Fold this sequence. Notes:
Elements: H1 2-32, E1 36-41, E2 57-58, H2 59-66, E3 71-77, E4 79-86, E5 89-98, H3 102-111, E6 116-119, E7 129-132, E8 152-155, E9 158-166, E10 178-181, H4 182-189, E11 194-195, E12 197-202, H5 208-223, E13 232-235, H6 237-280, H7 282-290, H8 295-334, H9 347-364, H10 366-373, H11 377-382
Parallel strand pairs: 5-10, 7-9
Antiparallel strand pairs: 1-12, 1-13, 2-11, 3-12, 4-5, 4-8, 6-9, 7-10, 8-9
Helix pairs in contact: 1-6, 1-8, 1-9, 6-8, 6-9, 6-10, 8-9, 8-10
Amino acid sequence: MLGIFIGIAAVVSLISLGQGMEEALTATFANLGTDKLVIQAASTMFAPPGSLAVTPLTKDDIDIVRRTQGVKVAIGRLLRGVTAEHNELRVQNFAISIPEDLEERRLIVEAVDLQVEDGRLFRNGDRFKVLLGADFATEDNAFQKKMRIGEKITLNDKKFEVIGILKRISAPFGNDGFMLMDDTLRELINEDEEVDLINVQVEKGADVTKVADTITKKFRRDRNQDIGEEDFTVQTPEQASQTFGSILLIMQIVVIGIAGISLIVGGVGITNAMFTSVLERTKEVGIMKAIGATNKDVMTFFMIESGILGMTGGIIGILMGVAMSGFVEIVGKNVLGSDLLRANFSIYLIVGALLFSFFIGTVSGVVPAMQASKMAPVEALRQ
C-alpha cells in the first residue's frame, strides 16, 4: 500500500493547496475591483515590471492612456532596484513609487489595500521619507534587525527616515522592499521619463475590456507594431486571474503526473502481493472450489481483497494529504504571513481519491485473481 498512499497523499495535498491558492487569488483580484487595468512593458524573462523591459514605458504612454475614452485616471509608477544600507549591512532591494497627487495616491492605496502595521502612510510633501515592507517588522529581514519608526536608512547614498511599516500584502516585491514618493524615487535613480507600470481606473459604466482593447490598439499604432509583436501588456483583473489560474492548472497536471508514477508503483506492489497471496492460499482455493465456489466467485473474492488494499492505502493517503496541506497552511499564515497558502478540501477531491485508489487496487488484482480462479480443485488440494 506504500506507493498508493504516497501517491494519493501527494495528489490530495497539492491539489487542495492549488485550489485554495486559486480561490485566494480570485478573491484578491476581486478586491482590486473590475474597473482597473494594469499596463506593463514586456520583459525578457520573469522579473519585476520594467527591470528587464525590452522597450520601457514612458510618460508619453501615460498621456496616450489618459486621452483614451473611458479612462478616468492613469498613474505611472516606478519599481527599481536600490542599494540600501543600515545596521552596518549593505543590500540590494526594490523600491516602488507612490504618486505625489493625493487623489492618485488614494487610488493606489485602495487598489493594493495598503495599511500600516506601525506609523503612518505618506502625506503631501514627504520627501526622503520611506515606508518599509512587512518583513522589517521582525528581525528576519535584510538588515537583521526589527525596524522602528524614526530610524534612518540609506538608499543610494541618501538618508531616509522610516515613517511606517506596512501590513503584509499578497503582491510580490512588496513585503521586503521600500516605498517612496514618486519625485523622490526619480531623483534617487536620476530618471525623469520612464515608468515601469501604469495603473488605470476606468470611468463608471465603461466596458473595461473595450477600454483595454482601445489602449492596446493605440499603443500598437504609436509603436508601429502588428498584432503579436507587442512589447507591452494591458491586463484586466479577470485576465490576470485567468493567467494565474492557467499556471496553477499546469502545476497541478505536473503534480498529478508525478503522483501517478507512485500510484503505478503501488499498483505493481499490490499485484505482486496478490500473486504471493494466491500462491500461499492455493489449498484454500481448492477447498472453496470443492464445496461449490465457481471461478467467478474466486475471482471476485481476490479482486475485492486487492481493492480493499488499494482503498486502505487511499484512506491513509487522504489523511496524510489533509495533514500535510493543513501544516503548509499553518506555516504560510504564521511564519510567512501569507493568506495565499490555504487548503481547500472539496468533497469531489476526497471521494475521487478514495474511488481511484480502490480502482487501482482492483485493477492490480485482476491477473492474480484470474490465476486463482483457473486453478483445478484437485491440483489445488494436492498442494
